[in-house]
Write a structure and sequence with these properties.
This protein has one domain: Glutaredoxin, CATH 3.40.30. It is globular, with a radius of gyration of 17 Å. 44% of the residues lie in helices and 23% in strands.
């Protein structure tokens, strides 16, 4: 009986680990108010950075600013694309557009006002940065400290070679 329970638990764990690698099938909203499925928004031919952030999250803004400083170089070298997904709720989402325009980020910005993507990714905190390749989540990192963008780019370059 113990072996049966152990096998069941291991099977359940391996199923969950596999399921976590799939990019969730969720609808997000563009800055223009159009509904867009996350799977349709990713870079089909390369790597996509999906960054969950919010207007009130200082580390999120620092991370996106740091990446913005080198984003053009990253694209030239690896053809990576970044989707900045705001998890601001209905009270703070009105700040997103003016903040993004003021920052002049060269990213696609999407809105997850009902936190559907955040829940699907089991994100307990932000910033949450994931790398997606071929529709699969291949890397995940939570939090930000200065210089973390360099580690992220090393991972992107490594995955681009595959």
């Amino acid at each position: 009986m113990k072996k049966l329970i152990l096998i069941f638990c291991l099977g359940l764990f391996s199923f969950n680990a596999t399921a976590q690698n799939d990019l969730p099938n969720v609808d997000l909203t563009s800055m223009e108010g159009k509904t867009l499925n996350l799977k349709d928004a990713i870079n089909k031919d390369g790597i996509t950075i999906v960054s969950l952030w919010a207007t009130w999250c200082v580390p999120c803004l620092k991370e996106l600013d740091a990446i913005n400083d080198v984003y053009e170089e990253w694209q030239d070298e690896t053809d990576v694309e970044l989707l900045a997904v705001s998890v601001d709720d209905s009270r703070t989402v009105k700040r997103v557009k003016s903040l993004v325009n003021g920052k002049d980020w060269d990213y696609t910005v999407l809105l997850d006002t009902n936190s559907e993507l955040k829940r699907a990714l089991n994100a307990s905190s932000i910033p949450l940065t994931i790398l997606v390749k071929d529709g699969k989540i291949v890397y995940e990192h939570s939090g930000y400290s200065p210089g973390a963008e360099s580690e992220l780019f090393e991972k992107i370059k490594e995955l681009s070679k595959d």
